[in-house]
Each structure stands twice: as C-alpha cells, then as structure tokens.
Amino acid sequence: MQRKFIIGIALIIAAIVYLIVSSSQASAQYFLTVEELQQKGQQMAGRELRISGAVLGETIQFDSATLDLSFDVVHIPGDNKEIEAQGGLAEVLHQAVIDPTLPRLHVVYNGPMPDLLKNEAQAIMTGTLDDAGVFHASELLLKCPTRYDEAVPEQTGN
Questions:
Q1: What is the pLDDT of residues 141-156, one digit of tens each?
Q2: Over 80: is that where the pLDDT of 136 sits?
C-alpha cells in the first residue's frame, strides 16, 4: 500500500514539473538585436521574439484603409554601456540610420500608425519572423530620442 502511495506522489510531482517546464518554454521570449536575429537566421522563424532597432523613416508605408503598416529597422547595439560610449541613444540612432552597411529588418504590423513612428525613433517590437525573413509585429513600442534620453533595455544573445 505504501509503495503505491509513493509511486502516485512521484507521478504527480513529475506531472507538475513537466507542466511548469513546458509552459515556461512555450512563453519564452527572445530579446535580440537586428544583427543577432540575422545571424541566427531561420532557426528563429516562428518563435516569439522581441527586437529593437532604429526606424528608417523613408521606408514607412501605411495604408489607412487596411491599417497595414510596414517599415524597416536597422541594427543598434543591445548593450547600454556601448550606447553610452557612442554618445547616447540619440547619437546611436542617428548614426545607425545613416550607415547603409548595418543589417536591416523589414517589419509589418497591422494597427493604427503610432504618432512617434518617424525617422530615428527606436522601435521595440514583439512578434515572429517568417520564412522569408519578414518580422510580423504583434506589439510595437516606440521611443523618440528627443523625448527620452534613456538607453535600450538589456538584451541577450547567445
């Protein structure tokens, strides 16, 4: 009788551990820079991602009838110390948009066009990457460097 009780408790504990691990992996979100995302390539397709980059103003296209918004972002460093060493967020965003050699990412979003979406704004987007390399944003946050003089959130890249 005691053996069945111990086996039952062990199975319940194993089931609880399995549920915790599987739910935390399913809701895991990767925070990457544009460069890190391009380096990882297709292995990141379909995963929930959070990306940060500088908006290229000339690429912004918005259809007010369908609320389809698309634009490109360019790589900015993910390390706050590096951003400060380069002169702060406003300077990093400015240098990023004028450098044609930095990695770019095409972003599509469906929703109202944010007021802060303009050239040299920092975009922090949550969404997924498709097989064609297009980022489909489900959430779009923008920071204008003239309004906010803070660095980007900490990012990881392994």
A1: 988 665 444 444 555 5
A2: yes
Q: What number is the average pLDDT over the span 76-99? A: 87
Q: Which CATH superfamily is domain 28-143 in?
A: Nucleic acid-binding proteins (2.40.50.140)
Could you give the dihedral angle defined by the CA atoms of residues 114, 116, 118 and 122, in that order, rounded to the nearest 10 degrees? Answer: -110
C-alpha torsion angle, residues 13, 15, 18, 23 (rounded to 10): -110
Structure token pair of residue 76: 């900015």
Domain locations along the chain:
28-143
The tokens for 89 are: 């967020």
Rounded Cα–Cα distance for residues 67 and 76 (Å): 27
- 54 forms bridges with which residues in the sheet? 74, 122
pTM of the model: 0.70
Judged by DSSP in three states, 2 sits in: helix
Residue indicated by tokens 């599509």: 108
Which sign, positive or negative, has the C-alpha torsion 71, 75, 81, 84? negative
pLDDT of residue 55 exceeding 90: yes
Beta strand 135-143 pairing with 68-74: unpaired
